[in-house]
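Holo prediction. Input below; ligand is FE2/S2 (inorganic) cluster.
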Amino acid sequence: MTSLYDEVQVTPSDVPTRRVTITVNGEKRTVDVEPRLLLVHLIRQGLKLTGTHSGCDTTSCGACTVLVDGRPVKSCTMLAVQADGREVETVEGLATASELHPVQEGFKQEHGLQCGFCTPGMMLTAKALLERNPNPTEDDVRWALSGNLCRCTGYQNIVKAVLWAADKMRAQQN
Ligand code: FES
Ligand code: FES
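Structure of the complex:
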């Protein structure tokens, strides 16, 4: 069991904490957290999974998107205690030891990123889309990604990357 406060060297002894157990990228993690702690801060500072980015902290940009029980969630909008007992997937969980997830490959093949700040959130949102709709139209992709902002790419290549991944995932199933 890990104390978040030990990891970030903050020990507010007078602040009550709550113990939560969250399955993160397939691994059960038990931590003591302040009830006010945001999920994004638990992920980044407590669990050291810094692939999840924090861009605005106001539910606008989508950089902090993770999957909670398979659904995209802006983790700056959710408290860590609300994730108790749930499954959380971050960008670190996408690839296996030997290969990239098709969505990651698509971003590589179609040049879907520049600075990469928005990319983890984009990829997780795309993964959730392709799991519920394996054959999306361009409009479907644009709609699904409408809560994720990119300041670099103009979106064109991001959309192409997701459609590339959809093709690959369908081919893998045939
Ligand atoms: S940091 Fe969460 S939406 Fe921008
Ligand atoms: S690649 Fe830079 S914000 Fe999207």
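The pocket of FE2/S2 (inorganic) cluster (ligand 2) is lined by residues 113-119, 150-153 (CB under 6 Å). That is the main takeaway for now.
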